[in-house]
Structure prediction request, 337 residues.
Amino acid sequence: MNCFHYTLLLTFVGFSYNTMAQERKVFPETGAILRFDQALDKIIDTNTRAEIIAEGFEWSEGPLWVPQHNMLLFSDVPKNTVYKWTEANGMETYLSPSGYTGKMKSQSKEPGSNGLTLNEKGELVLCQHGNRQMARMDAPLNAPQPEFTTLAATYNGKKFSSPNDCAFNNKGELFFTDPPYGLPTQNDRDPSKELPFNGVYKLKKDGTIVLLTDSITRPNGIAFFPGHKKLLIANSDPAKPFWYMYDVNGDQLSNGKIFFHLKERERNWKGLPDGLKISKQGIVFATGPGGIYIFSKEGKKLGIIRLENPASNCALSADEKTLFVTNDMYLLRIKLK
Prediction:
Protein backbone atom coordinates (compact mmCIF):
# COMPACT_ATOMS: atom_id res chain seq x y z
CA MET A 1 0.00 0.00 0.00
CA ASN A 2 1.47 3.40 -0.93
CA CYS A 3 1.43 6.40 1.35
CA PHE A 4 -1.43 8.11 -0.50
CA HIS A 5 -3.84 5.23 -0.01
CA TYR A 6 -2.69 4.74 3.57
CA THR A 7 -3.53 8.35 4.43
CA LEU A 8 -6.98 8.04 2.90
CA LEU A 9 -7.67 4.90 4.89
CA LEU A 10 -6.66 6.53 8.18
CA THR A 11 -8.88 9.53 7.45
CA PHE A 12 -11.86 7.32 6.65
CA VAL A 13 -11.43 5.16 9.73
CA GLY A 14 -11.01 8.21 11.93
CA PHE A 15 -14.16 9.80 10.54
CA SER A 16 -16.18 6.64 11.09
CA TYR A 17 -14.93 6.26 14.64
CA ASN A 18 -15.66 9.87 15.59
CA THR A 19 -19.12 9.74 14.05
CA MET A 20 -20.01 6.59 15.99
CA ALA A 21 -18.58 8.05 19.21
CA GLN A 22 -20.70 11.16 18.76
CA GLU A 23 -23.82 9.08 18.14
CA ARG A 24 -23.08 7.00 21.22
CA LYS A 25 -22.24 9.87 23.53
CA VAL A 26 -22.01 8.60 27.07
CA PHE A 27 -23.31 10.83 29.85
CA PRO A 28 -22.53 10.54 33.58
CA GLU A 29 -25.21 8.67 35.48
CA THR A 30 -26.89 9.13 38.83
CA GLY A 31 -29.78 7.81 40.90
CA ALA A 32 -31.46 4.45 41.38
CA ILE A 33 -34.95 2.98 41.12
CA LEU A 34 -36.90 2.00 44.24
CA ARG A 35 -39.73 -0.43 43.40
CA PHE A 36 -42.84 -0.63 45.59
CA ASP A 37 -45.30 -2.31 43.24
CA GLN A 38 -45.00 -4.69 40.31
CA ALA A 39 -46.98 -2.25 38.14
CA LEU A 40 -43.76 -0.20 37.99
CA ASP A 41 -42.24 -2.86 35.72
CA LYS A 42 -44.46 -1.67 32.85
CA ILE A 43 -43.23 1.91 33.27
CA ILE A 44 -39.48 1.74 33.89
CA ASP A 45 -36.73 -0.85 34.14
CA THR A 46 -35.51 -1.08 37.74
CA ASN A 47 -31.90 -1.06 36.51
CA THR A 48 -32.36 2.30 34.80
CA ARG A 49 -30.19 5.21 35.89
CA ALA A 50 -30.61 8.89 35.14
CA GLU A 51 -28.24 10.50 32.64
CA ILE A 52 -26.80 13.94 33.50
CA ILE A 53 -27.16 15.63 30.10
CA ALA A 54 -26.33 19.18 31.26
CA GLU A 55 -25.09 20.84 34.45
CA GLY A 56 -23.87 24.07 36.03
CA PHE A 57 -27.18 25.70 36.93
CA GLU A 58 -28.13 27.58 40.08
CA TRP A 59 -31.65 26.14 40.26
CA SER A 60 -33.08 24.45 37.18
CA GLU A 61 -36.86 24.41 36.80
CA GLY A 62 -39.88 24.19 34.51
CA PRO A 63 -38.81 21.70 31.80
CA LEU A 64 -40.92 21.64 28.64
CA TRP A 65 -40.52 19.32 25.67
CA VAL A 66 -41.25 21.10 22.36
CA PRO A 67 -41.92 18.32 19.83
CA GLN A 68 -42.01 20.48 16.70
CA HIS A 69 -38.38 21.46 17.31
CA ASN A 70 -37.17 18.32 19.13
CA MET A 71 -35.91 20.48 21.96
CA LEU A 72 -36.26 20.81 25.70
CA LEU A 73 -36.70 24.26 27.23
CA PHE A 74 -36.12 24.82 30.94
CA SER A 75 -35.61 27.72 33.35
CA ASP A 76 -32.72 28.66 35.58
CA VAL A 77 -34.76 30.81 37.94
CA PRO A 78 -31.94 32.69 39.76
CA LYS A 79 -30.14 33.38 36.45
CA ASN A 80 -33.29 34.81 34.80
CA THR A 81 -32.67 32.58 31.79
CA VAL A 82 -34.37 29.89 29.73
CA TYR A 83 -32.03 27.31 28.24
CA LYS A 84 -32.53 25.00 25.27
CA TRP A 85 -31.24 21.44 25.07
CA THR A 86 -31.12 19.33 21.91
CA GLU A 87 -29.52 15.99 21.17
CA ALA A 88 -27.44 17.55 18.40
CA ASN A 89 -26.13 20.68 20.12
CA GLY A 90 -26.50 20.07 23.82
CA MET A 91 -27.31 23.10 25.97
CA GLU A 92 -27.66 26.65 24.61
CA THR A 93 -29.02 29.91 26.01
CA TYR A 94 -32.51 30.39 24.59
CA LEU A 95 -34.11 33.37 26.31
CA SER A 96 -32.65 36.03 28.61
CA PRO A 97 -34.20 37.74 30.47
CA SER A 98 -36.95 35.23 31.04
CA GLY A 99 -38.86 36.32 34.13
CA TYR A 100 -37.81 39.83 35.12
CA THR A 101 -37.52 42.49 32.44
CA GLY A 102 -37.31 45.66 34.55
CA LYS A 103 -34.51 48.21 34.20
CA MET A 104 -33.69 48.26 37.92
CA LYS A 105 -31.95 45.28 39.51
CA SER A 106 -34.46 42.78 40.85
CA GLN A 107 -34.54 42.30 44.62
CA SER A 108 -35.71 38.72 44.17
CA LYS A 109 -33.36 35.80 44.65
CA GLU A 110 -35.34 33.97 41.97
CA PRO A 111 -36.38 36.57 39.37
CA GLY A 112 -36.53 34.32 36.30
CA SER A 113 -39.23 32.25 34.71
CA ASN A 114 -40.36 29.08 36.44
CA GLY A 115 -42.97 26.81 34.84
CA LEU A 116 -43.23 26.78 31.05
CA THR A 117 -45.93 25.48 28.74
CA LEU A 118 -47.35 25.88 25.22
CA ASN A 119 -50.77 27.30 24.44
CA GLU A 120 -53.10 25.87 21.80
CA LYS A 121 -51.30 27.90 19.12
CA GLY A 122 -47.93 26.49 20.11
CA GLU A 123 -46.76 29.76 21.69
CA LEU A 124 -44.55 29.76 24.78
CA VAL A 125 -46.29 30.70 28.04
CA LEU A 126 -44.15 31.47 31.09
CA CYS A 127 -44.65 31.80 34.84
CA GLN A 128 -42.61 34.95 35.47
CA HIS A 129 -41.38 35.35 39.05
CA GLY A 130 -39.74 38.76 38.65
CA ASN A 131 -42.54 40.36 36.63
CA ARG A 132 -45.09 38.66 38.93
CA GLN A 133 -47.28 37.55 36.06
CA MET A 134 -48.28 34.92 33.55
CA ALA A 135 -46.94 35.94 30.17
CA ARG A 136 -46.78 34.87 26.54
CA MET A 137 -43.58 35.21 24.55
CA ASP A 138 -44.24 37.18 21.37
CA ALA A 139 -41.75 35.55 19.03
CA PRO A 140 -41.54 32.34 17.03
CA LEU A 141 -40.18 29.40 18.98
CA ASN A 142 -37.30 29.06 16.53
CA ALA A 143 -36.34 32.76 16.76
CA PRO A 144 -37.05 33.98 20.30
CA GLN A 145 -36.84 37.55 21.47
CA PRO A 146 -37.35 38.68 25.08
CA GLU A 147 -40.68 40.42 24.43
CA PHE A 148 -43.74 39.39 26.39
CA THR A 149 -47.48 39.99 26.53
CA THR A 150 -49.10 39.95 29.96
CA LEU A 151 -51.79 37.32 30.31
CA ALA A 152 -52.53 37.73 34.03
CA ALA A 153 -50.83 39.99 36.59
CA THR A 154 -53.41 40.90 39.24
CA TYR A 155 -56.41 39.56 41.09
CA ASN A 156 -58.96 42.08 42.42
CA GLY A 157 -56.45 44.84 41.70
CA LYS A 158 -53.61 43.26 43.69
CA LYS A 159 -50.42 41.83 42.22
CA PHE A 160 -49.72 38.14 42.19
CA SER A 161 -46.73 37.09 44.31
CA SER A 162 -44.83 34.92 41.80
CA PRO A 163 -46.71 32.54 39.49
CA ASN A 164 -44.93 29.21 39.74
CA ASP A 165 -46.42 26.48 37.57
CA CYS A 166 -49.25 26.18 35.07
CA ALA A 167 -51.32 23.91 32.85
CA PHE A 168 -53.91 24.41 30.12
CA ASN A 169 -57.15 22.42 30.07
CA ASN A 170 -58.71 21.11 26.88
CA LYS A 171 -60.69 24.34 26.49
CA GLY A 172 -57.56 26.46 26.33
CA GLU A 173 -58.08 27.89 29.83
CA LEU A 174 -54.92 28.46 31.88
CA PHE A 175 -54.65 27.16 35.46
CA PHE A 176 -51.72 28.38 37.57
CA THR A 177 -50.34 28.46 41.11
CA ASP A 178 -49.02 31.50 42.98
CA PRO A 179 -46.76 30.86 46.01
CA PRO A 180 -44.34 33.52 47.38
CA TYR A 181 -41.01 32.05 46.25
CA GLY A 182 -40.19 34.85 43.81
CA LEU A 183 -40.58 37.59 46.44
CA PRO A 184 -37.40 39.02 48.03
CA THR A 185 -37.85 37.12 51.33
CA GLN A 186 -39.69 34.19 49.70
CA ASN A 187 -42.34 34.05 52.41
CA ASP A 188 -45.81 35.34 53.32
CA ARG A 189 -44.43 38.14 55.51
CA ASP A 190 -42.69 39.85 52.62
CA PRO A 191 -43.67 43.56 52.55
CA SER A 192 -44.22 43.42 48.79
CA LYS A 193 -46.79 40.62 49.01
CA GLU A 194 -50.19 42.10 48.17
CA LEU A 195 -52.54 39.12 48.32
CA PRO A 196 -53.13 37.71 51.84
CA PHE A 197 -53.11 34.10 50.63
CA ASN A 198 -51.34 31.81 48.16
CA GLY A 199 -53.82 30.98 45.46
CA VAL A 200 -54.59 28.66 42.58
CA TYR A 201 -56.19 30.50 39.68
CA LYS A 202 -57.84 30.00 36.33
CA LEU A 203 -57.49 32.43 33.42
CA LYS A 204 -60.55 32.12 31.21
CA LYS A 205 -60.56 32.70 27.46
CA ASP A 206 -62.28 36.07 27.91
CA GLY A 207 -59.51 37.28 30.27
CA THR A 208 -61.45 36.75 33.51
CA ILE A 209 -59.34 35.49 36.41
CA VAL A 210 -61.02 33.10 38.84
CA LEU A 211 -59.66 32.18 42.27
CA LEU A 212 -60.08 28.40 42.52
CA THR A 213 -58.71 27.90 46.04
CA ASP A 214 -56.81 29.87 48.68
CA SER A 215 -56.56 27.00 51.17
CA ILE A 216 -53.34 25.34 49.94
CA THR A 217 -50.50 26.82 51.95
CA ARG A 218 -47.78 26.55 49.25
CA PRO A 219 -49.39 25.60 45.92
CA ASN A 220 -46.76 24.58 43.40
CA GLY A 221 -46.88 21.93 40.66
CA ILE A 222 -50.17 21.51 38.80
CA ALA A 223 -51.40 19.06 36.16
CA PHE A 224 -54.58 17.53 34.78
CA PHE A 225 -55.43 13.86 34.66
CA PRO A 226 -56.58 12.54 31.26
CA GLY A 227 -60.03 13.92 30.48
CA HIS A 228 -59.30 17.20 32.32
CA LYS A 229 -61.95 16.55 34.95
CA LYS A 230 -59.48 16.03 37.80
CA LEU A 231 -56.64 18.33 38.85
CA LEU A 232 -53.55 17.47 40.89
CA ILE A 233 -51.72 20.16 42.88
CA ALA A 234 -48.50 19.80 44.87
CA ASN A 235 -48.05 21.60 48.19
CA SER A 236 -44.44 22.62 48.88
CA ASP A 237 -44.99 23.13 52.59
CA PRO A 238 -42.70 21.15 54.97
CA ALA A 239 -45.57 21.07 57.48
CA LYS A 240 -48.04 19.73 54.88
CA PRO A 241 -46.02 17.98 52.15
CA PHE A 242 -49.02 16.59 50.30
CA TRP A 243 -50.42 16.26 46.81
CA TYR A 244 -54.09 17.30 46.55
CA MET A 245 -56.61 16.12 43.98
CA TYR A 246 -59.77 18.00 43.00
CA ASP A 247 -62.71 17.54 40.70
CA VAL A 248 -62.95 20.38 38.18
CA ASN A 249 -66.48 21.75 37.72
CA GLY A 250 -66.45 24.81 35.48
CA ASP A 251 -64.99 27.66 37.54
CA GLN A 252 -64.91 25.65 40.75
CA LEU A 253 -62.85 22.90 42.35
CA SER A 254 -64.70 20.36 44.50
CA ASN A 255 -64.17 17.14 46.45
CA GLY A 256 -60.64 18.10 47.42
CA LYS A 257 -58.67 15.29 49.06
CA ILE A 258 -55.10 14.26 49.77
CA PHE A 259 -53.88 12.24 46.80
CA PHE A 260 -50.73 11.07 48.61
CA HIS A 261 -49.38 11.59 52.12
CA LEU A 262 -45.61 11.28 52.60
CA LYS A 263 -44.23 8.98 55.25
CA GLU A 264 -42.03 10.38 58.01
CA ARG A 265 -38.89 8.74 56.60
CA GLU A 266 -39.49 10.27 53.18
CA ARG A 267 -39.87 13.74 54.67
CA ASN A 268 -36.24 13.60 55.81
CA TRP A 269 -34.96 13.36 52.24
CA LYS A 270 -33.96 16.45 50.25
CA GLY A 271 -36.77 18.25 48.49
CA LEU A 272 -40.52 18.82 48.75
CA PRO A 273 -43.57 18.15 46.57
CA ASP A 274 -42.90 20.42 43.60
CA GLY A 275 -43.46 20.09 39.85
CA LEU A 276 -45.26 17.13 38.28
CA LYS A 277 -46.50 15.66 35.01
CA ILE A 278 -49.22 13.12 34.24
CA SER A 279 -48.99 10.70 31.31
CA LYS A 280 -51.74 9.86 28.83
CA GLN A 281 -52.37 6.70 30.88
CA GLY A 282 -52.78 8.69 34.10
CA ILE A 283 -49.39 7.78 35.58
CA VAL A 284 -48.12 10.59 37.81
CA PHE A 285 -44.45 11.61 37.83
CA ALA A 286 -44.05 13.98 40.77
CA THR A 287 -40.92 15.57 42.19
CA GLY A 288 -40.72 15.23 45.95
CA PRO A 289 -38.36 14.42 48.82
CA GLY A 290 -35.67 12.09 47.52
CA GLY A 291 -36.45 12.25 43.82
CA ILE A 292 -39.32 11.46 41.42
CA TYR A 293 -42.37 9.65 42.81
CA ILE A 294 -44.32 7.48 40.40
CA PHE A 295 -47.99 7.09 41.32
CA SER A 296 -50.93 5.28 39.76
CA LYS A 297 -53.95 7.43 38.92
CA GLU A 298 -55.51 6.17 42.17
CA GLY A 299 -52.62 7.55 44.24
CA LYS A 300 -50.75 4.29 44.85
CA LYS A 301 -46.98 4.69 45.11
CA LEU A 302 -45.42 2.43 42.49
CA GLY A 303 -41.82 3.54 42.79
CA ILE A 304 -39.32 6.34 43.30
CA ILE A 305 -36.51 7.45 41.02
CA ARG A 306 -34.15 8.13 43.91
CA LEU A 307 -31.90 11.18 43.44
CA GLU A 308 -29.30 12.71 45.72
CA ASN A 309 -30.13 16.35 44.93
CA PRO A 310 -33.60 17.90 45.17
CA ALA A 311 -35.66 17.69 41.99
CA SER A 312 -37.88 20.62 41.03
CA ASN A 313 -39.89 19.48 38.02
CA CYS A 314 -40.10 17.03 35.13
CA ALA A 315 -41.33 16.73 31.56
CA LEU A 316 -42.31 13.87 29.26
CA SER A 317 -41.26 13.59 25.64
CA ALA A 318 -44.03 13.42 23.02
CA ASP A 319 -43.88 9.61 22.87
CA GLU A 320 -43.63 9.44 26.69
CA LYS A 321 -40.59 7.18 26.47
CA THR A 322 -38.29 9.77 28.04
CA LEU A 323 -38.58 11.73 31.28
CA PHE A 324 -36.55 14.92 31.66
CA VAL A 325 -35.89 16.15 35.20
CA THR A 326 -34.60 19.47 36.50
CA ASN A 327 -32.45 18.41 39.45
CA ASP A 328 -30.94 21.45 41.19
CA MET A 329 -27.70 22.12 39.24
CA TYR A 330 -28.41 19.28 36.78
CA LEU A 331 -30.64 18.43 33.85
CA LEU A 332 -31.40 14.69 33.73
CA ARG A 333 -32.75 12.30 31.11
CA ILE A 334 -34.40 9.04 32.14
CA LYS A 335 -35.50 6.33 29.72
CA LEU A 336 -38.99 4.88 30.26
CA LYS A 337 -40.60 1.83 28.70
Summary: The radius of gyration is 21 Å. The longest strand covers residues 252-261. Residues 198 and 231 are 17 Å apart (CA to CA).
